[in-house]
Amino acid sequence: MNRNLLLFxxxxxxxxxxxxxxQVALAWWLYSKTGSSExxxxxxxxxxxxxxxxxxxxxxxxxxxxxRNMMVVMDLLRGVLFMSLFLMEYLSELxxxxxxxxxxxxxxxxxxxxxxxxxxxxxxxxxxxxxxxxSLYRLLKNLSKILGPALGSFLLKVVGLAGVILINSLSFxxxxxxxxxxxxxxxxxxxxxxERKMWQDIKSALLYIxxxxxxxxxxxxxxxxxxxxxxxHVLLPEHVxxxxxxxxxxxxxxxxxxxxxxxxxxxxxxxxxxxSAKTLGLNLMGYGLAVFVFAMTGNHxxxxxxxxxxxxxxxxxxxxxxxxxQLAIPEEMRGKIFSLIxxxxxxxxPVSYGFFGFLSSYVATAHIFITTSMALIAGGVLxxxxxxxx
Length: 390
Prior knowledge:
12 helices
């Protein structure tokens, strides 16, 4: 832990908690106001659809400018945006249309902020500490996922939507202030050409991905993983219900997933390890095996254990894959390539949800989960055959 990483971690945790509180409170508020899940779905689509369109271009902008400054600007913009939203709600002028516009704008700002984070983090720590730094960031995300829902529902009842919006606004403003004090040499600024057109930068990133087999295979595996694991997100309630289990079992599965992720991120943040393609492949194969056993059993205790393992292997994969990509991608291309990966991941989510939602009418959920496990294991085997070590 150094001064820069401490400032980054403190700012990130504040804004992550604020965001989780707001997301949970907004979903509950929307449903209670409208009595329809359609509005909740509309806002969920609005939160990732703009990112699919903007991300490839955002990555180019991130690579051409100071990534630290980009994070500061995006946090302050989001803070000001939510402060304006707070004033509208306080004055009873808030409308659904205005909420939707803010959601779209936040998604656009996120498209610039997220690749800036992934690109800047390797500059804040030594190479041998990069796995721990990524683990720390993932740990903060997991903590926010656990604390956010409880705080969001509580604060919505105590301070109302206006109070929740104000808290979220302040969290972004505080995060931006922390980031202002980060002092780091951004070497990529000496290597980028601002004279080239944006489409030329995107083309160069695509050509580089195609030329480096490890990066190309890794992105392919990420796409496979995101598509097939979408089945777990959308079909888990149906699967639990068809096994004759209660909503308690579903809620516990979600808790075990978060708990597994939390445990492993804490351990990875405290011990020094190195990422490798072989380790990455083993993470994914372990993930697939846990999904396979989960699909084959009806015992809820074994289901809990498998979801705990899924949380562990899923998190290990996420930590190791981001670390290896940060090391493999040239510093002047990180923003573009991470943005392209985000665009691919986001675009596959609605396709996956729609496809597996439709398929579940004709194929048992257990069989779909078994197929998912086979895809994960195959992806793990494929990536373990590549050669790269951080």
